Amino acid sequence: METWKNMADVERLVGMGKKTKQGIGPDTCLLLDTSGSMEGANFEEMITIAKTFIKGIADYATAPDLSENIGIATFGEQTRVVHHLTNDYSKLLETLDLLSPAGPSPMSAGLYMALACCLGRASLNKKMSKAEHTTIHRIPVTFRVILISDGKGTPDIVSSGEDDFPVNLETTVMKHIWLNETITHFEKRGGAIYCVGVGDTQTEMMEELCNKTHGKMYSPGEVHKLIHMSDNTTKAIGLLDRNVDFENIGELGKMKLRLLGIPESNVDEVVRLGEYYQEQIKERHYFREFIDVDMPPVGARVRRGPDWKYENQDQNGPGTIVAHTGFTSVCVVWDCENTNRYQCSPETAIELLVVDEPRILKEELIAVGCLVVRGEHWRYDDEDGGVGNVGVVLDVLESGMTLVRWPSTHKKLYKYGSEGFFEVKLCDPKTVRGTVGQLKTHVWDSGNVLEAELSESSEGATAIIPTTTKATSKGEIIEASDKRKPKSLDNKEWTIEDMNKRNSQLRKTKTTESDDQAVKSQKPNTQMIVHWAYKKEDSWSKIPMEISLKMEKAYGRNKQGSIIVELEGNIWKASFSEMKMKCEKTRTVMDIQRKEASE
């Protein structure tokens, strides 16, 4: 296997040196099984599938945002990259006519070649991650490999001879070991493997490849789904930008996609891709941080900037940068709990301003943007940078774990109530000057918005102190108040020590309210139940509680927003700003109202 890896690395270097015609991406490598077992009808079907795919991509090349690069790799008697990534589709079609079937089926070796093909282009740009050289709506889109085969792989130690290697337990185990090793390389780089089976396909290994790399198995008759995948990816990521929640989309959500113009034949693919990229944002890219970029660091507190164009997503409040989603963009979790991506570089737009404004807790135990130091159950030596270093919370899990980013950029999950342990504790923002958790040597400066100065803290750690602290919705610079303190429900001011004690007590007794309970707002000696109603034929009718709850949650997030609901067998769009809802089918408009009643 080491020999194949070395050969693949040579192919990668060849790709780096190639000056072939290329588009902006995404990138796809067709991995073709040219082994002896494919001879005859299987081989002809594979070539037909490959040509159909290339011609289909060529038809989409006229779109301004899509110019997909395609490469071709083979495994068989010739296991190599036969054409490096290009958008010269006619050259690729000519290459297919030169292929012929012979030899064994070293599938893992072929996958290494396909990986080398994809990484060759990415390595051309030193600033870009090897697996993330294309972005759609600021989201990195990784490469894909489309494997077309009958699935009859042979052990990769076999590099010559016919494809009739004996099948037994030993050879089967060898194939799986090498295949899993190859899959690991794809997982590290985020590449997806899609498989198309031809003939009497042995699907076991191909399905394993798909499942472990977030790919999918397709039949020869579903090639059109692979052709449309980049277009569907663009649609899915665009919907994520509009805060569509693919994880909980359901049939009602799919109906909404159809109303938004997604063709019926593409809905399931758009949902699948949306779920994948939503997960990527949360897990793989969500807390990523680039060092040498002209952007605020992860952990910085921000408000809307002079180039803001996103209405009331931030609800006019501050938020926390939790990730760099590109070399000019960041992901922000606002204190109102909305999350989205924004441009934050002098090269593009200044949609955010760094502020020195603490996270103010209401009823939360802890939240994104809070400042923390090591707690009473700390057991990690000096991985926080030493006693006194202050970290910023990037994520809070229901299990009682919190993700903290320290000034060194080190990030890790710590217990904050989990199993009764507090490995970190809240830190009083008043005792810390500057935006904590920023890089020790990097000062972000938009050139005309913020200035910063370096100051040495008593512990020797460097903090970045913005001389201007806050921006209004019009982009004007104002000074942030440092007099705000967390308060209890009876308006009594609490110290940080009080908060930490309170959190320790509450964590032991806190229970999660069920979603099927009515939405309640606490008032002295009274509980208020909120119901939504609609007016039909001059009389008001209550909206079913399940739908009412959803409307109330959406209303709480944005009182000027809207929500799609299903009522009386039809789809309605409810507008909170107009307090009306409109049937998407009949165009009927009805008044709605929000009612509070004492329990």
Give a description of the structure:
This protein has 599 residues and is α+β, with helices and mostly antiparallel strands. The protein folds into four domains: 2-221, 3-Layer(aba) Sandwich (Rossmann fold), CATH 3.40.50; 230-284; 301-502, SH3 Domains (SH3 type barrels); 520-598, Signal recognition particle alu RNA binding heterodimer, srp9/1, CATH 3.30.720. Helices cover 27% and strands 26% of the residues. The protein has twelve helices and 30 strands. The strands form seven sheets. Strands 24, 25, 26, 27, 28, 29 and 30 form a seven-stranded antiparallel beta sheet that branches. Helix 1 packs parallel to helix 4 (107-122) and helix 8 packs across helix 10 (267-284). The termini are far apart. Residues 122-132, 156-171, 434-492 and 507-526 have low confidence and may be disordered.
What CATH first level of the largest domain would be assigned? Alpha Beta
Oligomer: single chain
Query: What's the pLDDT, averaged over the residues?
Result: 75
Largest sheet: 7 strands, antiparallel
General form: globular
